[in-house]
């Protein structure tokens, strides 16, 4: 079909028979503890005999509730536990009890009890007593993603991870797959819970799957059709216990030799993980003459899968080098699956980034106001700042144990001024004093005050950029609420 997927997806090159079977120790691939013999396996049919099996689901949020519902429909005996006991948890508990689950709120048990499997929400760290006790007694601990893979159905998984850009790339890929004529959706860390996506009727042909390091940590046998690591920068080190463990979790996305592994030539950490992958290696990057998926003479070009010239960069609706990198990664994944170049080009030219991702809020008296509240770590903020030449920077929030020196050292040259909010304001101020001492800075009491102060610094031609480099939970419900308050304050000044 014109503009659609080709009849046959591009398959990975055959594995070297001398290569081990896709579980490289170098990326922390675990030896699967599997199921007890009485439960059976789902490797060929995509289904497990669940009736009467006892499963403990940890967490009653979106992924936990979806996992519980999926298990209940298969006849499992499901016990759900959650440390919270608020209005949201109680409402979810009521719905699950109606479906036959046992639900306990207000704390987690010390061990798995009589469960033969624990399915944990991704926010629960591996050091939690319940998780360590389960492992010690030989009870498998899966995440919702691993559960979905065991039930996977027929859809090809095209998986995306990285410190920054995951959501935008996944959304781009989802749009491309649909433009290519496939029944497809986004799933995983965004979109449809993946245990529901694999159960869809009619079934999906392909899934654009965003995977966080938390989700990947709790996988064992995941084999995406193709996968990419966009980039790696320090993040979530408290959860993982260090930078090496964090990168190792990301590397699990490349663990299977059947997976086409797509690495970012512009990111050294992504390349290190790609070097350890056992499947076919593919590169994307902004300057790769004659190879991979790259930019040549102002166009995205596919040298890896024979797609040739795809689309002119000037026709894209997204801004910044990091957004071009996202488009290159989405293109590589789509071409791996056999999506036609014209469908990719049409989807990319029509794509606009989601809210709070370098989203222009207003232009007032020649000053552009941009909301990148999604930039919740220094690496993301650096990528955002690199897209502008003169910036009044609104930054700060809840630091996740990360360092701001490299960010300020890199971005100091574009800063007209900095307006700092949140609990880590002093840390950013100290980094500015060390590396950009001539940049004026002022602390603000809240978002309305930050916008007022930023307006006093800004001149025609400047960009006032909310790129906090920190999490939001010290002052806001989440990054979206932070971005919304920024936009509201800007519009209030605009009148």
From TrEMBL:
<feature type="binding site">
    <location>
        <begin position="162"/>
        <end position="168"/>
    </location>
    <ligand>
        <name>ATP</name>
    </ligand>
</feature>
<dbReference type="InterPro" id="IPR004101">
    <property type="entry name" value="Mur_ligase_C"/>
</dbReference>
<keyword id="KW-0963">Cytoplasm</keyword>
<comment type="pathway">
    <text>Cell wall biogenesis; peptidoglycan biosynthesis.</text>
</comment>
<feature type="domain" description="Mur ligase C-terminal">
    <location>
        <begin position="357"/>
        <end position="469"/>
    </location>
</feature>
<dbReference type="GO" id="GO:0008764">
    <property type="term" value="F:UDP-N-acetylmuramoylalanine-D-glutamate ligase activity"/>
</dbReference>
<comment type="similarity">
    <text>Belongs to the MurCDEF family.</text>
</comment>
<dbReference type="Pfam" id="PF08245">
    <property type="entry name" value="Mur_ligase_M"/>
</dbReference>
<dbReference type="Pfam" id="PF21799">
    <property type="entry name" value="MurD-like_N"/>
</dbReference>
<dbReference type="InterPro" id="IPR013221">
    <property type="entry name" value="Mur_ligase_cen"/>
</dbReference>
<dbReference type="InterPro" id="IPR005762">
    <property type="entry name" value="MurD"/>
</dbReference>
<keyword id="KW-0133">Cell shape</keyword>
<feature type="region of interest" description="Disordered">
    <location>
        <begin position="1"/>
        <end position="46"/>
    </location>
</feature>
<keyword id="KW-0961">Cell wall biogenesis/degradation</keyword>
<comment type="function">
    <text>Cell wall formation. Catalyzes the addition of glutamate to the nucleotide precursor UDP-N-acetylmuramoyl-L-alanine (UMA).</text>
</comment>
<keyword id="KW-0132">Cell division</keyword>
<protein>
    <recommendedName>
        <fullName>UDP-N-acetylmuramoylalanine--D-glutamate ligase</fullName>
        <ecNumber>6.3.2.9</ecNumber>
    </recommendedName>
</protein>
<dbReference type="InterPro" id="IPR036565">
    <property type="entry name" value="Mur-like_cat_sf"/>
</dbReference>
<keyword id="KW-0573">Peptidoglycan synthesis</keyword>
<feature type="domain" description="Mur ligase central">
    <location>
        <begin position="160"/>
        <end position="334"/>
    </location>
</feature>
<keyword id="KW-0067">ATP-binding</keyword>
<dbReference type="Pfam" id="PF02875">
    <property type="entry name" value="Mur_ligase_C"/>
</dbReference>
<keyword id="KW-0547">Nucleotide-binding</keyword>
<keyword id="KW-0131">Cell cycle</keyword>
<keyword id="KW-0436">Ligase</keyword>
<dbReference type="InterPro" id="IPR036615">
    <property type="entry name" value="Mur_ligase_C_dom_sf"/>
</dbReference>
